[in-house]
Amino acid sequence: MIWTLLILVLAIALYVFGGMFIKAGNKKAAALDVVIHKGINAVAIILIAGCVCRLITPVYLVKTNPAILQEMVQNMQAEQEKVKNAEVRKYVKKHMNEMIGDAPIAGNVDAKNTIFLWSDYSCPYCRRVHSELSRVLSERDDVRVVLKNFSIHGALSDAPAKAVIAAKIQDNAKAAALDKLLMDKEYYTQDDMKNQAKLPETIHANVMNFAKEVGLDTKQLEADMEGEVVQRELQNVRDLAQRFEITGTPFLIIGEQAFPGAIPYSRIIEALK
Prior knowledge:
Order of helices and strands: HHHEEHEHHHHHHEEH
Low-confidence stretches: none
CATH topology of the largest domain: Glutaredoxin
Shape: elongated
CATH superfamily of the largest domain: Glutaredoxin
Number of helices: 11
Number of domains: 2
Distance between the termini: 49 Å
């Protein structure tokens, strides 16, 4: 803005005083001076017009007609989404099995429609989309949800994320049941949060109680949680998150489209079509 004002002042000065620097001589030189003077005026007018437009446009967009600015942003976002979905489509088609990896699967494991879900058990928005996905799975047998457990909140996320991945080693159905239990119930309380030093230990114990409830061998589960399979899957989750520029949860890939945020049941169904 300061540079625009400075150029505007200089352009006005050039237009007003530009002719003063031209000294007329003979007739031939005088004709050339007229051309130069007109050229200086033309340059000055172009600079003045450009500066005025630059100064007026933001005011027009922000105060007079902000809808245009909003439409521009929406169009840019739509274009970015289109490009991103094209990249997602290409990658998913080629690397479906690698993306599934060691991840637990909710629903029919052999279903033809796949939803990849990046979520964190301590994320309230993930719980919201979990209930929407549960509704989809209860109504349709042709959909599966690949659970990419994104451990991003430290002690609040680590134990449940590792436990559900490790549970698949014993039984995928029990892993899905543990996932549902962790999403449907609270696995830590506000009282637990008061003692940060013991929080990891408390959450681990609570998760093990949930695991026992769904019929898992908790001793084996604890061993597997620190094993190679869990570490490999967590790395796979992080690598894919980086590839798809996932910065928060929940994040869904439905078919070949990316959906950041807790989308509703209706949008999930529409995407599956």
